[in-house]
Design goal:
The chain is of the alpha+beta class. The chain has one domain. It has eight helices and 14 strands. The strands form five sheets. Strands 1-2-13-14 form a four-stranded antiparallel beta sheet, with helices on both faces. Helix 3 runs parallel beside helix 4. The longest helix has 17 residues.
Length: 281
């Protein structure tokens, strides 16, 4: 076998391995799984603590109660302008939800739970640069629907109302949406950043909620504790397997690399591209 033929075969193998992994790695949804609204109501009791609520959410996700439209990942071109570099990612086509295509619930999470779900599905969370690129590439661009700040913004009834408001806006595009078209603008992102670490107390870093003019309502912000999850927060998973100039690597590895991080992060290297997960989670 010639060297050139061997290189071609290796390249084809790499592409096949990547192509086979363009779906969210979760169990098949059970026939009698709860729909989104029913599940949301089941965790809406105000006496249910945050950790207990997130355990129930994680178990539902682990059991595969996720809509079909989220399972096929969307390709995102991250190739820099004015270069010959070929860089692409595969991303969740919308923010994470529980339920079915016909009845789903956008589920806010703490960064600890979001990281657990990322580990479970062999994914990462996005950086600011990725969030901007996703919004720019999105076929369906929704507009943010903020509410006045209050103590109830971290409660499940407000999460339900937020989902209902987004669904009304999404209705004209629901057929295309449920085929997996890339959708953005409806949530802020929990992002990877060097600002996760360094404070005296664990933090969540949020960014996004782009307006139709492409500008984000929420700048990069790390003043909330890692136990904060409000109605505006969304989880967008990014597949960890990537190709850079036809070379297979992992996103977490690239983010820690001085040369490769520039493709994915406007902070440069992200030394710890993950959130710390408390052992109780």
């Amino acid at each position: 076998m010639t060297k050139k033929l061997l290189e071609v075969l290796i390249l084809i193998t790499c592409w096949c391995q990547i192509a086979q992994s363009q779906v969210l790695r979760l169990r098949k949804r059970k026939e009698h799984a709860l729909d989104g609204k029913a599940f949301a109501l089941s965790i809406s009791d105000s006496t249910l603590g945050l950790k207990d609520r997130e355990r129930l959410i994680y178990q539902e996700i682990k059991n595969g109660n996720v809509p079909d439209f989220l399972r096929k990942l969307s390709k995102l071109d991250m190739s820099p302008n004015n270069t010959h570099d070929a860089v692409s990612l595969y991303v969740l086509p919308d923010y994470f939800a529980i339920g079915s295509n016909e009845d789903f619930f956008y589920v806010p999470m703490t960064p600890m739970l979001a990281q657990k779900v990322a580990f479970l599905t062999h994914c990462s969370l996005p950086t600011k640069l990725m969030v901007d690129s996703i919004y720019k590439a999105a076929t369906i661009k929704l507009y943010p629907q903020p509410i006045a700040p209050s103590t109830s913004m971290v409660t499940v009834p407000v999460f339900i109302n937020s989902t209902d408001s987004i669904l009304k806006q999404l209705q004209p595009f629901i057929v295309e949406h449920n085929k997996g078209l890339l959708t953005a603008g409806n949530k802020k992102d929990i992002i990877l950043s060097n600002k996760i670490y360094g404070a005296l107390t664990p933090r969540v870093v949020i960014y996004g909620w782009h307006k139709p003019d492409g500008k984000a309502i929420q700048p990069v912000y790390n003043k909330h504790l890692n136990t904060w999850a409000d109605y505006s927060h969304g989880i967008r998973l990014i597949q960890d397997k990537i190709l850079i100039n036809n070379k297979k690597t992992r996103l977490k590895r690239a983010l820690k690399n001085r040369k490769l991080s520039k493709y994915f992060s406007d902070e440069g290297v992200i030394k710890k591209p993950y959130y710390p997960v408390n052992s109780s989670y």
